[in-house]
Design goal:
With about 260 residues, the protein is mainly α. It has 10 helices and 2 strands, in the order αααααααββααα. A two-stranded antiparallel sheet has the order 1-2. It is globular, with a radius of gyration of 21 Å.
């Protein structure tokens, strides 16, 4: 993994020839599996056997966007562009995750932990390191966002109490819950979408609204997890490794036809 900046090493440097060969071989195999199924019409058939070209093309274009945006994000240094690329990327994963998916479906501690558990064992000695680094990437983002709270007393607390104008406590957010809510609100403001409910008062008003640059390493982890187990994102799709194409023999045309 080429590192564009001198930041904390959230993902392992693959430096030895053996490790580089293992990673290249794994990436090649998993890309072959992914794109083989992307070009297979049966992957996009309904339970009744009807081929859905609209879903096929939508998913092909979405995966193409995921590949492009991930590559751009890993080499981008401008904070404004990084923010745009990151939330564009998350939107693409949300579309695969659920046609009406929300950023909170992907940007939460539970889902990231599930993805870390799903990292392909075929990565051998790199597997545990990459899984741990994916969890560390989320933890780094969570802590950076928490440290961006404007009130120092909130930063020093283990959770955040949200109070109504009359002083009563409306809700209490853990660091993980706050990170998920804030990222969803930042995505909406970045893309010009309406804020939902009390997002402005609950999270944006209390924060410097800066997105940590370490989101690029979460993006890298999401890509490896996607290649490891596409069905973790592709709700309703079978696990690609378990899908097999069945040949259907077509009888020869009748003579004279």
């Amino acid at each position: 993994f080429a590192r564009p900046h001198t930041e904390p090493n959230l993902f392992p440097r693959v430096t030895s020839p053996t490790a580089r060969h293992l990673l290249r071989s794994w990436l090649t195999r998993r890309l072959n599996v992914l794109f083989a199924h992307l070009t297979l019409p049966v992957t996009f058939a309904t339970t009744a056997g009807e081929y859905r070209p609209d879903q096929h093309w939508q998913d092909m274009l979405t995966v193409n966007d995921i590949v492009t945006l991930t590559g751009m994000l890993l080499t981008e240094s401008q904070p404004t562009t990084t923010r745009l690329l990151f939330f564009d990327l998350i939107d693409r994963y949300c579309v695969l995750h659920d046609r009406a998916g929300k950023p909170a479906d992907v940007l939460n501690a539970r889902f990231v932990s599930e993805l870390a558990d799903a990292i392909d064992p075929a990565l051998g000695p790199l597997r545990d390191a990459i899984a741990a680094d994916l969890r560390d990437a989320w933890a780094s983002i969570r802590e950076s966002l928490w440290n961006g709270l404007l009130d120092e007393s909130h930063v020093a607390s283990a959770d955040l109490a949200i109070r109504a104008p009359d002083g009563r406590e409306e809700l209490r957010l853990s660091k993980d819950e706050f990170a998920t809510r804030l990222l969803a609100a930042l995505r909406n403001t970045t893309h010009g979408y309406d804020l939902r409910g009390d997002q402005f008062r609950h999270v944006l008003l209390r924060h410097n609204c800066q997105l940590p640059e370490t989101v690029r390493y979460l993006a890298l982890g999401l890509w490896i997890a996607f290649l490891s187990k596409p069905s973790a994102f592709w709700r309703g799709r079978a696990d690609f490794d378990a899908v097999r194409v069945r040949r259907k023999d077509v009888p020869p045309p009748a003579s004279g036809s």
